[in-house]
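tool_call: predict_structure(chain=1)
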Amino acid sequence: MATNLNIDPKLLEEAYTVSGLRTKRETVNLALIEFIKRHKQKDILKLINSVEYDKGYDYKEARNKR
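tool_result:
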């Protein structure tokens, strides 16, 4: 799918140079993949902080009951 974007040429050139990829297209695709991963990780971190833990749980005792 062809898409025309107005991308800051300095940012694109720096990302292209730093990435070591062969094309600017690969650079943009990698940047999008990393952006998506980072935002999904943020959502996961929000969930981790919302979990309530049983402070009285003794994992050693539970292990011995097996």
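agent: The chain is about 65% helix and 0% strand. Proceeding to next step.
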